[in-house]
Design brief:
The structure is a homodimer of 162-residue chains.
Chain A (H helix, E strand, L loop, with lengths): L7 H14 L6 H12 L3 E2 H9 L7 H13 L4 E3 L7 E3 L7 E5 L5 E5 L4 H4 L3 E2 L7 E12 L1 H9 L8
The first copy, chain A, binds a DNA duplex (30 and 30 nucleotides) through helix 4.
Chain lengths: 162, 162
DNA sequence: CACCTATTGTGAGTAATTCATAATAAGAAA
DNA sequence: TTTCTTATTATGAATTACTCACAATAGGTG
């Protein structure tokens, strides 16, 4: 709860507390996955597995899938699904930020909510539809980053990132 | 261009014109796919294939994939990728509308842009990041529709739709 | 009508993810 | 500290969503 998680040990302790609060056991795998996602945000499952294997050499990709899904379900991770990309994860949760994806190179950057909290959660409904009670508003911006814009100017037209 | 597409023949003629304008041949498969998506918006590839097969009994799912991708690339269809769901398609293009997904039943509804056109395309960038030139802003709202809200009140806690 | 080539059909292949079940280990209890 | 219970992880197979290569077909131009 308090923000004493400046050292690696402090982060681990904070995560352990969060895990126990959510009724989860504290395992090396979970802590390693959390640390890997914290180190490099917007990483894919494969990237996380590779990073975790530097510490826990035998962890399987399937276990990473299970851990990522579980940590997401208890709110310690946030899962994003960019277009034309496998799912990605980040430790920055509960702050209503969004993402920009470069259609040239696939780079993903965080974007704060452009219009504040409220408008994002109050869509205008078409006539005749039953309003839903909105919990999340995910905004995915797509465009060209500075590097790719420069490259496309000098050479060819932009390609869709795969 | 003009909006004379009120009858099935009129729609077909309008689509044929759009296809030719995009340098594409007019085929029964393409028209059938467009008609299927028009009839039921937000359908998956499998649903489209099933609908098309009522007319063109021998069309393969792979061909539907190819046709959907191609029609999307020339702007006749819009592809959306809701969380925890295969890609879906709709004929409503070029109007900057967004989508709301019910986490209970998976239902998808159209939502007009809450804050007008401009703010959606002007995210606020974090300090130190190179701004991208934004082309698209896709907003996906998640929440509970009226039906699911009622069910979750009377019985159990909400489940994630799969 | 014939030809050229875009489009479709067919089958195999791949990436991302899930499932079933056995082995392991976290944490409570003794 | 040790034991016990069961959540968690490991392993391997299976599934879903989608793509690719290439042969067959059919628009549409001349």
């Amino acid at each position: 709860m308090t923000d004493y998680a400046v050292t690696a040990e402090g982060r681990d302790a904070a995560w352990a507390t969060s895990l126990r609060t959510a009724g989860r056991r504290v395992t090396r795998q979970r802590l390693a996955v959390l640390a890997a996602v914290e180190r490099s945000p917007h990483t894919t499952t494969d990237d996380v597995a590779a990073a975790v294997r530097t510490q826990l050499t035998d962890i399987s990709v399937q276990s990473v899938y299970v851990v990522l899904a579980d940590l997401t379900s208890i709110g310690l991770l946030r899962r994003i699904e960019p277009p034309n990309s496998p799912a990605r994860y980040e430790t920055r949760v509960n702050d209503n930020h969004h993402h920009a994806v470069c259609t040239g190179c696939g780079r993903i950057e965080d974007v704060d909510c452009a219009v504040g909290h409220a408008p994002c959660l109050t869509p205008s409904w078409a006539a005749g539809t039953q309003p839903m009670s909105i919990v999340i508003a995910d905004v995915v911006y797509q465009g060209l980053c500075a590097d790719c814009r420069e490259n496309s100017n000098t050479s060819l037209t932009q390609e869709i990132h795969k």
